[in-house]
């Protein structure tokens, strides 16, 4: 458990961090961040401003590739190593609705509706803040680690037990938008990897391979058929009137060819004009022609194209791949076998900055049950 002195020190450091973030040099970045979130500074109430500012300080990546909290630590070399580790750990925020289990001395025990883990929460403002959070109610909060416990970061919202459905709707939305939020729970992470492997196996059985190239205009229909195939396997019977696949983006549908790749790690991806890039790796001479050269260059520099796409293409014929990269990168002595990994890490830095997560959305049975309509309303 965290001692009172350590919690106080954490609270002091959080206050210093907020003050540090209010320097004039961050004004432009903060305004741009708020605008990207759909807000203007003068339009925000105090509660919403504190919430968004906490997101900006702890999680937003600045133009220099660092966060405000990272710059705060760099600017304070007097911090002890445990303090440095704690403050940098605040970049990993746990958020979302939590159900109150009970008070535990000066702390509040809550259970996340997203990852289904229990957190022992403290407040640097004292335990009095928890007087309005009885058992069975819900809190909407952001938590950061302080030792082996958790501290409130930003504002606290409280929902009565009667607003359970709203709390579960919020949790469902977070689980779908940010699947990795559930993966803090090791059991959920393992289950998500298992589900991704299972779905990949179905993809291969349906399409015949884990890489297929089809006309863009056919992608929606083929994915609808794949979803029906999956549903029939899961239910053990066909369901002709079931929902189809999510709507495919227009830029994919308008592509001449689309590559569908279901990778072991990166999951299912759709890659526009894959056929042109595939042809360039088969015949590097095509790079003399603009369409092939520009599209292959897009695959090199577009962050939405995972390294595995280029790796798969290169490993079909490493010698031809070496020629492709020499011409596009103007790297005369490039050799795929020697320089490929280094090159991918340089061009796809954002991908390698985070550990790989499963690409499936893992929603708990409890959340799913809350979303299921009553039998009389179907």
What is the element layout, followed by pairings?
Layout: H1 4-21, H2 27-36, H3 46-59, H4 68-74, H5 81-89, E1 94-104, E2 107-112, E3 118-122, E4 138-146, E5 149-152, E6 157-159, H6 164-177, H7 186-207, E7 211-215, H8 219-235, H9 250-253, E8 257-263, E9 267-272, H10 274-282, H11 290-301, H12 307-316, H13 318-329, H14 336-347, H15 349-352, H16 365-371
Descriptive keywords:
single chain, alpha+beta, 378 residues, OB fold (Dihydrolipoamide Acetyltransferase, E2P), 9 strands, 16 helices, globular, 3 domains, five-stranded mixed β-barrel, disordered C terminus
Shape: globular
Q: Main sheet?
A: 5 strands, mixed, barrel
Oligomer: single chain
- Overall structural class, as computed from helix and strand content, comes to alpha+beta
| Radius of gyration from the alpha-carbon trace, in angstroms | 25 Å
Strand-residue proportion: 5-15%
Number of strands: 9
If you average the pLDDT, what whole number results? 92
The percent of residues in helical segments reads 40-55%
Strand adjacency order, main sheet: 1-2-3-5-4
Low-confidence segments, ≥5 residues, pLDDT <50? 372-378
Work out the helix count: 16
- In total, the number of domains comes to 3
Give the SSE order as H and E letters: HHHHHEEEEEEHHEHHEEHHHHHHH
- Beginning-to-end CA distance, first to last residue: 49 Å
């Amino acid at each position: 458990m965290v001692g009172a002195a350590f919690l106080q020190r954490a609270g002091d450091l959080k206050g210093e961090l907020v003050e540090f973030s209010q320097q004039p040099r961050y004004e432009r970045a903060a305004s741009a961040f708020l605008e990207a979130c759909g807000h203007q500074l003068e339009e925000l109430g105090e509660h919403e401003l504190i919430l968004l500012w906490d997101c900006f300080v702890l999680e937003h990546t600045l133009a220099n590739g660092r966060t405000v909290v990272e710059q705060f630590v760099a600017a304070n070399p007097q911090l002890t190593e445990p303090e440095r580790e704690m403050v940098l750990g605040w970049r990993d925020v746990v958020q979302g609705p939590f159900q109150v289990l009970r008070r535990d001395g000066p702390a509040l025990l809550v259970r996340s509706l997203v990852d289904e883990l229990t957190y022992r929460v403290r407040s640097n403002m004292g335990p009095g803040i928890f007087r309005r959070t009885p058992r069975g109610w819900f809190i909407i909060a952001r938590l950061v680690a302080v030792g082996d416990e958790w501290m409130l970061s930003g504002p606290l919202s409280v929902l009565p037990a009667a607003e359970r459905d709203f709390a579960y709707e919020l949790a469902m939305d977070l689980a779908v938008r940010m699947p990795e939020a559930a993966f803090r729970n090791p059991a959920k992470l393992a289950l998500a990897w298992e589900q991704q492997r299972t779905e990949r196996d179905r993809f291969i059985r349906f399409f015949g391979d884990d890489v297929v190239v089809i006309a863009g205009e056919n992608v929606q229909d083929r994915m609808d058929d794949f979803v029906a195939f999956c549903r029939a396997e899961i239910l053990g019977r066909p369901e002709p009137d079931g929902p189809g696949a999510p709507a495919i983006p227009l830029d994919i549908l308008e592509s001449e060819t689309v590559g569908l790749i279901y990778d072991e790690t990166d999951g299912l991806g759709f890659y526009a004009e894959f056929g042109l890039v595939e042809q360039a790796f088969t015949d590097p001479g095509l790079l003399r022609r603009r369409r092939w050269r520009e599209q292959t260059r897009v695959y090199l520099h577009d962050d939405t194209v995972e390294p595995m796409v280029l790796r798969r293409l290169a490993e079909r014929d490493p010698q031809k791949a070496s020629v492709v990269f020499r011409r596009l990168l103007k790297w005369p002595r490039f050799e795929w076998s020697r320089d490929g990994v280094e090159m991918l890490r340089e061009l796809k830095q954002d991908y390698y900055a985070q550990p790989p997560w499963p690409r499936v959305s893992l929603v708990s049975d409890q959340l799913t049950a809350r979303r299921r309509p009553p039998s009389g309303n179907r």
